[in-house]
Design brief:
The protein is of the alpha/beta class and 335 residues long. 56% of the residues lie in helices and 8% in strands. It has a five-stranded parallel beta sheet, sandwiched between helices. It catalyses: DNA(n) + a 2'-deoxyribonucleoside 5'-triphosphate = DNA(n+1) + diphosphate.
Length: 335
């Protein structure tokens, strides 16, 4: 469902403020580059801007009414003067840009105003990008271009120089939690997902992922083993850990989940219970927190971060985890 001006203003206040000023003063740029991480609302803001331009009865002169025929058609993706271009396969090809240019050489179907939006603009082939460049160099005063990217460094400098760049910030943890719970994620799981990813779509996918649910149990089990017997922890690595965290990305996520346990224990010791993310395990963690020290937890968190660094330096995953378990147990106050 399309998001309203108010909803997107909560997500990206500075972006919406800038667009509001440009609309009120009638000073919109002819080309924008919306850049930022996935899930930050770039495409939604692009569609909102389209509605602001085409709305038949905007509120306060710039807020789309969401009810007129133009707003409804843009929401349904079938307004004749609003064109959205996405990669054809892995890339955006020259023929797609040429077809767009051809479309724009015609008079607007219902008005002179036209808008086009290029999703994943960083995936344009060199020929497509050069073709677009000619288009951007001869702007029509009635045409608005919106390029959208998560990889601004992949955009040609010549294209960057012809666009007004607007950066979309990652969502705040509070905003993420409220949006996740609004989408049916349990209040106990939402805080953990926010620590794992700042991407709303990815967080929603993880909330339904059996692999992710099982990963949490395996990580907690490893911590529990560490508090009892390091030999058992080694057996757990062979029996469960390596069976579950097979790929490098999976192991990286496992280490992230592991690190969150130590953070939670530290928060408990500091009396900052509102920051805990393993909410379903709160009682057990409170018991574990009594059996260790803040200094020890800090050392262990440092060891996990070092393991993550070694993982990205392509160290053997099995050796890495075995070394980490021994390091975490060294001089532990549990013994």
């Amino acid at each position: 469902m399309a998001k309203t001006w108010t909803q997107l203003e909560e997500m990206q206040p500075s972006v919406l403020k800038m667009l509001k000023n440009s609309l009120i003063k009638d000073r919109l740029a002819h080309a924008y580059l919306f850049e930022g991480k996935r899930g930050t609302g770039k495409k939604e803001v692009g569609l909102l801007l389209a509605k602001s331009l085409f709305c038949q009865s905007p509120l306060e002169g710039y807020i789309p009414c969401e009810a007129c025929m133009n707003c409804r058609r843009i929401n349904n993706g079938n307004h004749p003067d609003v064109h959205i271009l996405e990669p054809d396969g892995l890339s955006i090809k020259k023929s797609q840009i040429q077809a767009l240019q051809e479309e724009f050489s015609k008079t607007g179907v219902e008005s002179k105003q036209k808008l086009y939006m290029i999703i994943h603009a960083d995936r344009m082939t060199v020929n497509a990008a050069n073709s677009l460049l000619k288009f951007l160099e001869e702007p029509n005063s009635e045409t608005t271009a919106i390029l959208i990217t998560e990889q601004i460094q992949q955009i040609l400098p010549t294209i960057l120089s012809r666009c007004q760049t607007i950066s979309f910030k990652p969502l705040s943890p509070q905003m993420m939690i409220s949006r996740l719970t609004a989408n049916g994620v349990t209040p106990n799981l939402a805080p953990m997902l926010v620590q794992i990813t700042n991407n709303l779509e990815e967080a929603l996918e993880l909330s339904h992922d059996d692999w992710f649910a099982q990963a949490q149990k395996i990580v907690l089990k490893l911590y529990e083993m560490l508090t009892k017997n390091p030999l058992e922890a080694m057996v757990h690595l062979q029996d469960q850990w390596f069976q579950h965290f097979k790929e490098k990305e999976q192991l990286d996520r496992g280490l992230d989940l592991f690190l969150l346990i130590f953070k939670d224990l530290l928060y408990i010791q500091l009396g900052m219970h509102e920051k805990i993310v393993y909410l379903n395990e709160k009682a057990r963690l409170e018991q574990f927190a009594l059996e260790t020290s803040g200094r020890r937890l800090t050392e262990q968190m440092t060891a996990i971060l070092e393991a993550k660094r070694k993982l990205h330096a392509n160290m053997n995953p099995q050796l890495l985890m075995e070394q980490l378990v021994l390091k975490l147990k060294e001089g532990s106050s549990f013994v």
